[in-house]
Amino acid sequence: MDPWPLRHLVLRTPRLELRPDDDAGLLELAAEAERGVHPPDEMPFGVEWTDAPRERLGFNAVRHHWSMRASLSSEHWTVNFLVRLDGRVIGVQSLSGESFAVTREVSTGSWLGLRHQGRGLGTEMRAAVLLFAFDLLGAATARSSAFVDNPASLAVSRKLGYRADGSFVQVRRGRAAVQTRLLLASADLVRPGWELSVTGVTPCLGLLTGREPTE
User: Fold this and answer.
1) What positions does the domain N-acetyltransferase occupy (predicted)?
2) In the 3-class helix/strand/coil scheme, how is the chain assigned residue by residue?
3) pTM score, two decimals?
């Protein structure tokens, strides 16, 4: 058994390459975070990690990704795909599963460096992991959420076919803020006009789905 089969996994879209995080890539990701992820008067994240002092931001990000790698199992996993444009890391797209073999449900989260936003890259990278989850892992549903004052994230969800599935209140920077829950069934995905290219998936299937490949 390969001790870390995720190192072979690559998702490719027309503009982007997504690979599970590695240490060299995390250094690039930390540098991108330090350049800025959102305007300082906004907070799009449920975990306010970008409020950390700039000198701690990169360290905290790298440590978080290491902890997610260390806790990964077939029952509880998060794959943090580093998103590369023209060979450089510009953000991260996560895909998570809890008891996936039973639930067949995934959830997603992401961030993109501020200087790369507004170009449709957020839609492209989320579409990539949804196609991977539905077509190759056999997921039936995908979930996401976004604060009601985060129109960019909500727009990505609408483009891809999610529907609203309730809401919840969360404390954000000391105040109550509402998040919209979002649900997408496999059959409702608005598929992009391009094909996802995937390599290295077969060795990962046992780890992510709880079942070994049949071939």
Assistant:
1) 16-185
2) CCCCHHHHCEEECCCEEEEECCHHHHHHHHHHHHHCCCCCCCCCCCCCHHHCCHHHHHHHHHHHHHHHHHCCCCCEEEEEEEEEECCEEEEEEEEEEECHHHHCEEEEEEEECHHHCCCCHHHHHHHHHHHHHHHHHCCCEEEEEEECCCHHHHHHHHHHCCEEEEEEEEEECCEEEEEEEEEEEHHHCCCCCCCCEEECCHHHHHHHHCCCCCC
3) 0.96
| pLDDT per residue as tens digits for the range 59-81 | 999 999 999 999 999 999 999 99
pLDDT in tens, 115-154: 999 999 999 999 999 999 999 999 999 999 999 999 999 9
- 116 found inside a domain: yes
Domain count within the chain: 1
Q: What is the pLDDT of residues 189-211, one digit of tens each?
A: 999 999 999 999 999 999 999 87
Asked if the structure places residue 77 within a domain, the reply is: yes
- Residue 64, domain extent: 5-142+193-209
